[in-house]
């Protein structure tokens, strides 16, 4: 017990305090430990400790000039007696509005709260000065990740601000942040963060090896980093995912992921991302279990519809009309009367037109884009039907496919579906249901072979992990997820996996 108390208390020797600070904030490269000179032979007589991502640099200089250094000069001639020095320090701290701490636990807590800590030779107390806090633009709800229930804080384009918001959520020295500088002209700062004791060591080593390769390149956005560290460049499936929500980023850290943040970019890259991760959102854990499970099932249904509906229609209408009920088949034949194109050409025309409308709606200014996309879809759809270029059933199929793709919560996975939809339509037009089945087999084989940072892409499904299925097709009650053995390891400091969001 005595040794434990001694480890927590400050030493009178500055060199021991400096060694303790360096060990406590090891690999937290956003923490600055600055020595202040002034000794008989120019040696350091004090230390300034603060988190640069929480304290503005101008504010830290102001505190040092107006408060910290005058306090050192004021106490320079004090008696070396312990009781007199402590009394003088308390009186001077009160005059300079400084808070005093005598244990490293309190110092660490205040560093993560944005305090500037002053530790001097011969002191058994540290003086803490409150900083002005973060300077940032107004934090708004992310446009790409709206929330009905839950936090609405989104990231901005300043790296220290984003790191500060992460520090505010996870105020512990187990959150390690390391920097990489990319490029010789831009000199872009790239930070990657992970939770020590939770992230897999092999995955972290592979990530460090890959991100080191980006140093010679000029990096403009976080997506440049994704291209450098992904396993398969030509796979349509995303191996990492993006977020602008700090609660999602914090949950990913607890899940054993690695975060990549780039200066001048609001996007946070979450590494790695598994297939099942693209059907869950942070909001699933802020609503009731029954509703979250229903919404997750709807997303899975939307994935199946967006991927297969046009190709299934082409296959059945061209090769397998016997699979369609007679009444519906007669309605389809009646609607297609006078259409000069086969179903495959009709599907390709309408799908291409829909993709063009969607891209135009994204690129146009926001007030105009939504109007153009909606009006354009109505006008083009009605004109195609009247001109006998497309049948009404095909317009319905394309519209349902587009709506289903919008229901997928992550844009990266929606892009993968858009890419795979056209090869499946072509396969269905050549071999019908057999071509569709072969397309599914090739996609499944690719997913089974795909890895991301050494992790199987279909983890939880293949290899099958029954425990993880509680958070895949359904969302089990939070008390069940938080009661899991691996979650208890997480809180104890051991490795944790995807048990708590």
Break the fold down into its secondary structure elements and pairings.
Layout: H1 2-8, H2 14-24, E1 31-36, E2 46-51, H3 57-74, H4 82-95, E3 99-101, H5 104-112, E4 115-120, E5 126-130, H6 159-169, E6 175-182, E7 188-195, H7 201-211, H8 222-229, E8 241-243, H9 246-254, E9 258-262, E10 268-271, H10 289-318, H11 326-335, H12 343-363, H13 366-386, H14 392-406, H15 411-431, H16 433-449, E11 451-452, E12 455-456, H17 478-482, H18 485-492
Antiparallel strand pairs: 1-2, 2-4, 3-5, 4-5, 6-7, 7-9, 8-10, 9-10, 11-12
Protein name: Spore germination protein
Transmembrane segments: 298-319, 393-411, 423-447
Family: Belongs to the GerABKA family.
Q: What do you see in this structure?
A:
The chain has 501 residues and is of the alpha+beta class. The protein folds into three domains: 2-130, no CATH class; 159-273, no CATH class; 286-456, no CATH class. The protein has 18 helices and twelve strands. It has a five-stranded antiparallel sheet with strand order 1-2-4-5-3, with helices on both faces. Strands 6-7-9-10-8 form a five-stranded antiparallel sheet, with helices on both faces. Strand 4 and strand 5 (126-130) form a beta hairpin. Helix 10 (289-318) packs antiparallel against helix 14, helix 12 (343-363) packs across helix 14 and helix 12 (343-363) packs antiparallel against helix 15. The longest helix has 30 residues, at 289-318. The two termini are 36 Å apart.
């Amino acid at each position: 017990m005595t040794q434990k108390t001694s480890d927590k208390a400050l030493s009178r020797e500055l060199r021991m305090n400096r060694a303790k600070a360096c060990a406590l904030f090891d690999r937290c490269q956003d923490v600055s430990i600055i020595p202040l000179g002034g000794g008989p032979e120019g040696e350091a007589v004090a230390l300034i400790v603060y988190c640069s991502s929480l304290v503005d640099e101008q504010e830290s200089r102001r505190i040092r000039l107006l408060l910290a250094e005058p306090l050192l000069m004021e106490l320079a001639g004090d008696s070396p007696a312990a009781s007199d020095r402590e009394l003088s320090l308390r009186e001077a701290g009160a005059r300079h509005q400084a808070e005093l701490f005598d244990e490293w636990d309190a110092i660490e807590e205040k560093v993560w709260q944005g305090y500037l800590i002053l530790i001097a030779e011969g002191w058994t107390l540290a003086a803490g000065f409150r900083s002005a806090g973060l300077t940032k633009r107004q934090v708004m709800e992310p446009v790409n990740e709206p929330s009905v229930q839950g936090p609405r804080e989104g990231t901005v384009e300043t790296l220290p601000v984003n790191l500060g918001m992460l520090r505010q959520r996870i105020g512990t020295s187990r959150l390690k942040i390391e920097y990489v500088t990319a490029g010789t002209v831009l000199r872009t700062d790239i930070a990657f963060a992970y939770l020590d004791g939770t992230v897999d060591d092999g995955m972290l080593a592979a990530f460090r090896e890959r991100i080191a390769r980006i140093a010679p390149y000029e990096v403009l956005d976080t997506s440049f980093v994704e291209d450098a560290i992904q396993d398969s460049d030509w796979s349509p499936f995303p191996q990492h995912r993006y977020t602008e929500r700090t609660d999602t980023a914090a949950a990913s850290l607890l899940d054993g992921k690695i975060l990549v943040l780039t200066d001048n970019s609001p996007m946070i890259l979450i590494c790695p991302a598994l297939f099942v991760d693209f059907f869950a959102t942070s909001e699933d854990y802020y609503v009731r279990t029954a509703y979250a499970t229903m919404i997750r099932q709807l997303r899975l249904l939307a994935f199946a519809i967006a991927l297969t509906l046009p190709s299934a229609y082409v296959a059945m209408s061209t090769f397998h009309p016997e699979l369609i009920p007679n009444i519906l088949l007669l309605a389809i034949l009646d609607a297609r009367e006078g259409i000069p194109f086969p179903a495959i050409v009709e599907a390709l025309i309408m799908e291409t037109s829909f993709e063009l409308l969607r891209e135009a709606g994204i690129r146009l200014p926001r007030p105009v884009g939504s109007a153009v996309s909606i009006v354009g879809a109505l006008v083009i759809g009605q004109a195609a039907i009247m001109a006998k270029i497309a049948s009404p059933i095909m317009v319905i199929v394309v519209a349902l496919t587009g709506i289903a793709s919008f229901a997928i919560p992550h844009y990266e996975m929606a892009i993968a579906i858009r890419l795979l939809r056209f090869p499946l339509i072509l396969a269905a037009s050549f071999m019908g249901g057999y071509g569709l089945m072969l397309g599914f087999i090739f996609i499944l084989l690719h997913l089974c072979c795909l890895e991301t940072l050494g992790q199987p892409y279909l983890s939880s499904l293949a290899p099958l992990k029954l425990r993880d299925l509680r958070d895949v097709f359904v969302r089990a009650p939070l008390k069940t997820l938080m009661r899991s053995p691996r979650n208890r390891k997480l809180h104890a400091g051991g490795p944790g996996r995807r048990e708590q969001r």
